[in-house]
Amino acid sequence: MRKARQKTEREPTIALINIVFLMLIFFLVAGTLAQPLDSTLNLVRTADLEGNAPADALVVHPDGRMSLKGKEISSVAEYMAGIGQEAPELVRLVPDRDASAAQLVTLGRELRAAGAQRVVIVTERGLE
To answer: Any stretches that span the bilayer, and where are they (predicted)?
Structure first.
C-alpha cells in the first residue's frame, strides 16, 4: 500500500496581493474625486518675500544668550523693559534650531510670571 501524500499548506500570498492591489485602485480613484482648482485661478507667490522676525521678538541663541533688536540682554526683566510695555499681550520667542527645549519652557514660564499673557514660539515656517 502506498502512503497518502501529505498536502503542504500554501501561504495565502495571492490573497494578500489581491488585497493590496484593490487598496491601490481604491486610493487612486479616491484621490481623483477631489474637485480641481479653477483653471483661471492664479495663486499668490511668496518666494520673493523676505522672512524677518517681528521687531519685538526675543531671540534665543543655542548657548542660552538672548537678544532683542540685535542687542544682547541678560534677563526677562530687561526684555520687558526693552519692549516698553508693562504687561504685553503677546511675546514672541524666536529660538535657534539648536536651542534647548527645556530652556524654552523655562523662559516661557518666566515670561508668563513677568506678566506676558501669551508666549508664542516663531518657527521657520511662520517667518515665511
So the answer is: 12-34
